[in-house]
Amino acid sequence: MGVAGVSKIKLMQSTVLFAGLAEESLAELAATAHFLRLDTDQTLFLKGDPGHQLFIVARGVVRISSTSDDGKETTLNLMHSGQMFGEVAVLDGEDRTANAIAHEPSELLVIERRELLDFLDRNPEAMRRMLVAVCARLRWISEALEDAHFLDLPRRLAKRILLLAKLFGHPHSEGGIRIALQLSQQDLAELLVVTRESVNRQLRQWEADGIMTLRGGYLVVTDIAKLETIF
Questions:
Q1: CATH number of the domain to which 27 belongs
Q2: Are 140 and 162 in the same domain?
Q3: How far apart are the first and last CA of the chain?
Q4: 3-class DSSP state for residue 209?
Q5: Are residues 125 and 168 in the same domain?
Q6: What phi, psi does 183 have (nearest 5°)?
């Protein structure tokens, strides 16, 4: 059992790859998987490392990032509970294409490449679902590139914050939606590939407009409807 007694099979079934597959068909693969705990800022793997494992987030958030030749790092994605990652290197047998670092204390289910490929060979439906998962990742990358080229900063930032509110949002005691994920302005800037200063200016403007505010280190969207009109 992993976090709060969640079984390996139930966690696997929460992903695009294994959703809808019977427990009986997943039992053997689940028996070979194991849980791994990470502390905040602990590195899971780096770009160029061998890719022998698939990961499913049981708890916490893992930041997927890339580093340039001169050492500059940019955040590509944030993987949360129920999401899987690492499938590209597992499928093609090549090295990792990005870094994976725990954004907060996290627990992952780890599935080894050899066992996963054997499972896919024996289960055509699972192989089809893997293709669907990879296509979904490609569509996400394509949409991110389009946003970077066609949307201005306010619309891109609004879109990202609305997504974070959907994934991590909870009603706040003083009204609005509190995003239960600590993200700095630099984190938001890296997700959008813009400067921290530009994000700071936009957030300050939205705070003045009554759209959002910062409370206890967390972003609170105070007027979700107005934010939706920006996007």
A1: 2.60.120.10
A2: no
A3: 41
A4: coil
A5: no
A6: -125, 130
Number of domains in the chain: 2
pLDDT by 10s per residue, the chain, length 231: 555 446 899 999 999 899 888 899 899 999 999 999 999 999 999 999 999 999 999 999 999 998 877 777 788 899 999 999 999 899 999 999 999 999 999 999 999 999 999 999 999 999 999 898 889 888 988 898 898 889 999 999 999 999 999 989 999 888 899 999 988 898 899 888 889 999 999 999 999 999 999 887 889 999 999 999 997
Give the range of the structural domain holding residue 25, as residue numbers without chain letter.
Answer: 3-148
- Cα–Cα distance for residue pair 42/130, rounded to 1 Å: 28
What type of residue is 163? Answer: L
Q: What is the value of pTM for the model shown?
A: 0.86
Nearest CA to 79 among 114, 49, 48, 107?
Answer: 107
